[in-house]
Amino acid sequence: MSLHTTQKLKLHHPETFKFDSIPDSHAWLDLHEHPSVESIGPDTIPVIDLNDPMLIEKIGKACEEWGVFIISNHGIEPEVLNRLCSQMHRLFALPEEVKLKVAKAEGTDAGYGGGAISHLFSKFSWSEGFSIVGSPVDHAQKLWPDNYSSFCEVIEEYNKATKSLGCRLIHAILLSLGFSEEELYQIPIGGSSKIKTVMNLNSYPACSNPDQVLGFPPHTDSACVTIVYQNGSGLQVLRRKDDIAPTRWVIVPAVPNTFVVNIGDLMHVLSNGRFHNVVHRVTISKTNRLSCAYFIGPQDDVKLGPLSELAGWEQSPLYRPVKWPGLLKIRSKLNDKALQAIKIDSSSRGEGNRISFEFYALQA
Ligand SMILES: C=C1C[C@]23C[C@H]1CC[C@H]2[C@@]12CCC[C@@](C)(C(=O)O1)[C@H]2[C@@H]3C(=O)O
Ligand SMILES: O=C(O)CCC(=O)C(=O)O
Ligand SMILES: [Fe+2]
After folding, report:
1. What is the pLDDT of residues 209-268, one digit of tens each?
2. Is the CB of 336 under 6 A from ligand 1?
3. Which of 87, 90, 133, 358 is the most buried (most CB within 10 A)?
4. Is residue 125 within 6 Å of ligand 1 at its C-beta?
């Protein structure tokens, strides 16, 4: 791979994952000093059974307090997940030059490469990703000209099942905000025909010095919700300082037959700041790990803002409405400061206005 390609995609050098010592480009300093990681502590990420009669209340509470929860009884067959895993193995085991045939092109979200905000971090991630937007057929044909249907079939199947699971979750989340069943359909993401989904397949190779690297640095997801399937642990969420302890990383356990659900920036905006867009990162271990992150947000032409008027809340809106692609553009410049750029904040005029200006310039 040429240096140019490597830098543009913020991808590893093909030999990196075989090194015994970690190259400077991937080694983070003081990674585990602050905040600390809670291995056994007072924190347990809520586990929510989708058949629980108290589902709405439990989901609302988890979205507010944690911004992440684990779901069981989701109805997706383990057999589909096993097939998804074997196709992910098959994809990432391809030679580097084959995977690069479907490298993300400038300005597109779909294809092989690093994350959309990877260029904002000082170090490379110990991971490879493949993003799917819409049909995977074109890319799959390039990867396996004679044998692409087994990949496409499981992707389509998983997509269909996870999309309907996502709609169920979004409904429960909106109901927890106080909307009625009838009102749901007036909301820009309240129905399967209104949402857009992006599937991100991730591979985190085994590492001999896992404490020096990260599979993905700390970030929030931009979408409304993300549904994560993981075949082993590695994901950690940042728990805010509270009465129990200071800010700390909490390990998200890998519970068989469950998914992890994260709240993203757009759900934080939609709920007018009530739901927590949780910061998370991915750590690496001595064994290979696979995950599939399924991002659910509004369609590209839909502006999403706080739903305060609809719900008749007393609080005034904290954010200006934004389209998903617009937010991605701001994030690719401002990273974790992106939401400040759309904040309606009368109290901090100086800084706020400067960032808002940048926001409008980017939107133009
Ligand atoms: C629809 C999406 C969601 C994206 C951007 C675009 C395609 C790739 C997604 C990710 C995947 C990896 C983490 C993330 C933070 C990243 O860097 O790229 C995600 C990002 C986001 O959540 O904004
Ligand atoms: O691999 C994981 O567990 C999560 C990956 C992630 O955070 C992402 O793709 O946004
Ligand atoms: Fe993420």
Report:
1. 999 999 999 999 999 999 999 999 999 999 998 888 888 999 999 999 999 999 999 999
2. no
3. 87
4. no
**Comparing C-alpha atoms, which of 117, 167, 147, 142 is closest to residue 281?**
117
83 is catalytic: no
Torsion of CA 63, 66, 70, 76, to 10 degrees: 30
CA distance 131 to 111: 5
Rounded Cα–Cα distance for residues 200 and 84 (Å): 12
Predicted complex: ipTM over 0.95: yes
CB atoms within 10 A of CB 344: 13
CA 46 → CA 60, 74, 223, 225, 237, distances in Å? 11, 15, 21, 16, 12
- CA-nearest residue for atom 1, ligand 1, is 198
What is the model's pTM?
0.93
> Which residue type is seen at 177?
L
Helices and strands (DSSP H and E) totals, the chain: 12, 15
Ligand 2 atom with least separation from CA of 226:
10
Whether the CA torsion 6, 328, 341, 174 is positive or negative: it is: negative
| Residue 100 token pair | 């690069």
